[in-house]
């Protein structure tokens, strides 16, 4: 799952990071790289807590939906990729039937995006259920 984050710095060296789509989820680091690594861990813990409490995976919006928010003015935007499979349970193999042309289009798309069919179909299902 790709999650938008915004970094702020008062001194140009240490950074605070806010996750707009996860209320109360934030982190910091002594460099941009440290801050992004720290916020990834914060996101993972936040999502794990939500799911353990029986809540659904939150809807994640693109950066463009947050950029005009004055709370994030002057921030540097980044995207953190978080593997959520550990929180959603074990993978389960299923058999599905799709039209041949649709399957080819899925394969062409996933190849171009460096995804697997499974990842693509899971992401499409999550997006459809938001």
- Report how far the terminal alpha carbons are from each other: 14 Å
- What is the strand content? 15-25%
CATH architecture of the largest domain: 2-Layer Sandwich
Shape designation: elongated
Q: What is the assembly state of the chains in this entry?
A: single chain
Task: Enumerate the spans where pLDDT stays under 50 for 5 or more consecutive residues.
Answer: none
Could you say what the CATH topology of the largest domain is called? Double Stranded RNA Binding Domain
Integer tally of domains: 2
Average pLDDT rating: 90
Report the strand count: 4
How are the strands ordered across the major sheet?
Answer: 3-2-1-4
Biggest β-sheet description: 4 strands, antiparallel
Question: Using only CA atoms, what is the Rg?
Answer: 17 Å
Brief synopsis:
By secondary structure, the protein is α+β, with helices and mostly antiparallel strands.
Salient structural properties:
Double Stranded RNA Binding Domain; 2 domains; 130 residues; Arc Repressor Mutant; alpha+beta; 4 helices; elongated; 4 strands; four-stranded antiparallel β-sheet
Describe the structure.
This protein has two domains: 1-88, Double Stranded RNA Binding Domain (2-Layer Sandwich), CATH 3.30.160.250; 91-130, Arc Repressor Mutant. It has 130 residues and is α+β, with helices and mostly antiparallel strands. Strands 3-2-1-4 form a four-stranded antiparallel β-sheet, covered by helices on one side. It is 39% helix and 16% strand. It is built from four helices and four strands; from the N terminus they run βββαβααα.
């Amino acid at each position: 799952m790709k999650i938008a984050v915004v970094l702020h710095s008062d001194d140009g060296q240490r950074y605070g990071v806010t996750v707009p789509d996860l209320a109360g989820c934030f982190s910091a680091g002594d460099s941009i790289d440290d801050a992004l690594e720290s916020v990834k861990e914060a996101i993972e813990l936040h999502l794990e807590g939500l799911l353990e409490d029986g809540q659904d995976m939150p809807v994640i919006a693109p950066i463009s939906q947050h950029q005009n928010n004055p709370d994030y003015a002057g921030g540097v935007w980044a995207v953190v990729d978080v593997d959520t499979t550990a929180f959603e349970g074990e993978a389960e193999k299923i058999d599905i039937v799709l039209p041949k042309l649709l399957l080819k289009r899925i394969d062409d798309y996933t190849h171009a995006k460096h995804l697997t069919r499974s990842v693509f179909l899971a992401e499409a299902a999550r997006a459809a259920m938001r």
